[in-house]
């Protein structure tokens, strides 16, 4: 059985993952971050929703939208449950959540 080539949307998501892994989101301006959310919104394959949610959460964190960040990061962890790949995603989601809560210890 022949494997399908990755979609353009998936390749864009992987590019965002590299930007995230290089810790470059904090260096981006608000105007640069907003289009990254559009890339996440383009994703239609449920198999990558855990990664999509991680990236959205990290972007929302940098935009100062704390509640959206927490919601996306929690969703990333939940969507990864039962998957047998991308074990780094829930670990990074936990790290991002910790950094959100460290910024505002009163956050629930």
From TrEMBL:
It comes from the Eukaryota. Keywords: Signal. The keyword Zinc does not apply. Residues 1-29 form the signal peptide. One of its GO terms (biological process) is cilium assembly. The keyword Signal applies. PANTHER family: TETRATRICOPEPTIDE REPEAT PROTEIN 39 FAMILY MEMBER, TETRATRICOPEPTIDE REPEAT PROTEIN 39C. This is Tetratricopeptide repeat protein 39A. It comes from Potamilus streckersoni.
């Amino acid at each position: 059985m022949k494997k399908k080539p990755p979609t353009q949307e998936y390749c864009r998501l992987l590019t965002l993952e590299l930007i995230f892994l290089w810790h470059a989101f904090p260096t981006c301006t608000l105007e640069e971050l907003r289009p990254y959310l559009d890339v996440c919104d383009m994703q239609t394959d449920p198999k990558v929703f855990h990664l999509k949610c991680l990236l959205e959460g990290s972007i929302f964190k940098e935009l100062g939208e704390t509640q959206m960040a927490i919601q996306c990061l929690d969703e990333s962890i939940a969507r990864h449950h039962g998957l047998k790949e991308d074990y780094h995603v829930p670990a990074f989601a936990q790290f991002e959540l910790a950094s959100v809560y460290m910024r505002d210890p009163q956050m629930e």
